[in-house]
Fold this sequence. Notes:
By secondary structure, this protein is mostly helical. It has 46 helices and 15 strands. The chain has six domains: about 20-195, P-loop containing nucleotide triphosphate hydrolases (Rossmann fold); about 200-255, no CATH class; about 400-470, Alpha Horseshoe (Serine Threonine Protein Phosphatase 5, Tetratricopeptide repeat); about 490-730, Serine Threonine Protein Phosphatase 5, Tetratricopeptide repeat, CATH 1.25.40.10; about 750-850, Winged helix-like DNA-binding domain superfamily/Winged helix DNA-binding domain (Arc Repressor Mutant, subunit A, Orthogonal Bundle); about 855-990, Serine Threonine Protein Phosphatase 5, Tetratricopeptide repeat, CATH 1.25.40. It has a six-stranded parallel sheet, sandwiched between helices. Strands 7-9-8 form a three-stranded antiparallel sheet.
Amino acid sequence: xxxxxxxxxxxxxxxxxxxxxxxxxxxxxxxxxxxxxxxxxxxxxxxxxxxxxxxxxxxxxxxxxxxxxxxxxxxxxxxxxxxxxxxxxxxxxxxxxxxxxxxxxxxxxxxxxxxxxxxxxxxxxxxxxxxxxxxxxxxxxxxxxxxxxxxxxxxxxxxxxxxxxxxxxxxxxxxxxxxxxxxxxxxxxxxxxxxxxxxxxxxxxxxxxxxxxxxxxxxxxxxxxxxxxxxxxxxxxxxxxxxxxxxxxxxxxxxxxxxxxxxxxxxxxxxxxxxxxxxxxxxxxxxxxxxxxxxxxxxxxxxxxxxxxxxxxxxxxxxxxxxxxxxxxxxxxxxxxxxxxxxxxxxxxxxxxxxxxxxxxxxxxxxxxxxxxxxxxxxxxxxxxxxxxxxxxxxxxxxxxxxxxxxxxxxxxxxxxxxxxxxxxxxxxxxxxxxxxxxxxxxxxxxxxxxxxxxxxxxxxxxxxxxxxxxxxxxxxxxxxxxxxxxxxxxxxxxxxxxxxxxxxxxxxxxxxxxxxxxxxxxxxxxxxxxxxxxxxxxxxxxxxxxxxxxxxxxxxxxxxxxxxxxxxxxxxxxxxxxxxxxxxxxxxxxxxxxxxxxxxxxxxxxxxxxxxxxxxxxxxxxxxxxxxxxxxxxxxxxxxxxxxxxxxxxxxxxxxxxxxxxxxxxxxxxxxxxxxxxxxxxxxxxxxxxxxxxxxxxxxxxxxxxxxxxxxxxxxxxxxxxxxxxxxxxxxxxxxxxxxxxxxxxxxxxxxxxxxxxxxxxxxxxxxxxxxxxxxxxxxxxxxxxxxxxxxxxxxxxxxxxxxxxxxxxxxxxxxxxxxxxxxxxxxxxxxxxxxxxxxxxxxxxxxxxxxxxxxxxxxxxxxxxxxxxxxxxxxxxxxxxxxxxxxxxxxxxxxxxxxxxxxxxxxxxxxxxxxxxxxxxxxxxxxxxxxxxxxxxxxxxxxxxxxxxxxxxxxxxxxxxxxxxxxxxxxxxxxxxxxxxxxxxxxxxxxxxxxxx
Length: 999
């Protein structure tokens, strides 16, 4: 055995400096073909904690994967491992003496030094372990076979008498009798719940190991049914058919009958019990939780406690978490026993058994469990009676799976049942179904005075569901409704009350800070309210998800949330948390592929619009953080958010798209960034505004890039963003071909280009005779003018003007058009010497040299200058720049081109930006108490975009400031008419427009 010549009293705990040797009575067992093939990093990491302690125990039932976990850990741990299985070499006999324990450990340790004889007494074993020259772990598997107190004392003494470099890892089906209080040894305990497969692990198991992937819903259902028990998952796989459809049907059938684990349960679990104990469990399987009182009342006996304690001692699938007052039977075992009971008694007698169980439960404070028993008995009259008596208490229980399969007449007639259906649908993300079921519950409850409470609860749920489904802008104080309002406008999170905020109010405030871009404050606020939300699972899960996304980016933490959400009965949160975990793993994947495809398909199939945008948001953020923002994801996200009326989120999506386009160096990237900045400003999202300016800095070079970057940094600091996301991307600047013409560098004629209101171009102050060229050639000129000096690719011109034409013919037409325009703009110029309509490879541009002007450029530069001045606090300079911009905007872009597809997007972009500029001008005038000028600017904004809420609010505020209350009321009514013309309830105007001040 390796020995150190002069060991120090302090043993190094740095395992990374030791060799890795796995020894045993042989070697650690090779995992069988089962769930053991799936490496679970969270469990490996948990066992790595053994380096800080002397003793680690893993207590879990048969088939939970203990041996597999130990073997996987031993293979990668940089430490000497002596493996001792209690059944090895003894035909499976239990260890019933101290001598047998020492002999087994001695055999295991000798595997590390075959030249030494195995120790046969404790002193020799202690000496050999003490002289071992590196940390060593003794693995004692199947330790439940150690039945002798003397053998257990050997382990106690071993740990007490050996130095800190000796560690003990124990796996058992039941807790052992280690006197840890006496030995005072630092220890680590992994309970059975830690070994449970989580949904994400179940999905990976069936996808990677079994090559039989399951749909996300089926993964969740199977994990829930098996409680993540490894043996049950493997047995289900062995019994499940091959095709995806058949596997789906097999999962759905689990709620009715359990067949796949019959042999295993009979052999490994029930085989260690007496016939009387098995019969006791079978008869009491009608209870979800067993207690001596319940079982005695059901069976008419007095010995239930004796049975329960003996069964717990024999089987880890029946356990007590409260010292023996109540006992939980593993879901798979209970389902197996319930199936046996039904087979023996028949449906009628089994229903009577469930009815008897419900009667017992009615005498306890367990109305929800009693109701589930009545449902299992198909006793619908008793279901209605119980709900009428204890409806709020029943629905306070988060388990609502009992609503599945209820007869439709019961749902339609009983308001409590309809409300339960609505609540379950809402937690599943089915907003329309929740809204309709809650409406049904409210209507049926209104017919009886006994159900007033149900009517109130149903109405509240109906409002919340409608708020999220329809975008209601009149939220109550309920945190779910206010959170929806924050998604529309982050400023809605501000609570004007001076009282300390409740945890739910703090959650809404944190969400507002997050959406506004104040990530620093959001992290603090989330942390402050997390612990106080234990009584509100929905709010607690929301905080957990957002905190995980903002914090350490730990996928295991997201898995924990998914697991908790699934157990609490919040499947929507479970699915989102699982997607977050997948996203976080993507960021560290060596071969990344954009995640969430399967999750997105599932959400799309469900019609879950909000899940789709959340998942797309995480997908886009992942691509962004990974350095390659995906424009298609952001583009799709913008489209969906527009439908859902979520401007705050849309502002971030637009900023993400701007960064993606800037990273790819697309021709219109700068315009996209400016548009994103305008939208973010209008939506009141300063963080997204900073990112949009950051994207603009990526599109430019030289001083203009520095200017935009400085503006982005100033906005980010003011917003509390705490980072510079636009710098996470890798830009791809195309190389210029040799000899390419630099646009705008020539000393040729000057141009004055006008695109607002009508198209006009002057060359050195003179109008060229454009009427001499064909209409299509003039259209080419207008397309190039719209680019305001930036190059336009030949393919874009051809696609817009000659779609469907043969490429060679279209290219010829373009060359002819360009030549005819050049001849008019620069008559007499030699061939190849044209300076105004320049060519750069496959791109063309209208060259704006020194002294040239374009009203589009004037407008954009003035808006940017106004924003810089506003950030710097120079209100006067901002007003002057905005006035210049609005003077340049004399109407729609290129109105003579009508609905031509190539101009529509630019026309709308400038229209929105002009309306925003006028609104900002009105806002700045109000700040300076120039109410009349503010009203004039607000009217200009409304004239440009009559549907802009903020401009109407500014107009009313301006009239209010001037004291013209009649004008304010006329403005309010005019806006109501605009809303009505759009199909929006007219009285909504009173909610979004301020009332005039009185007195």
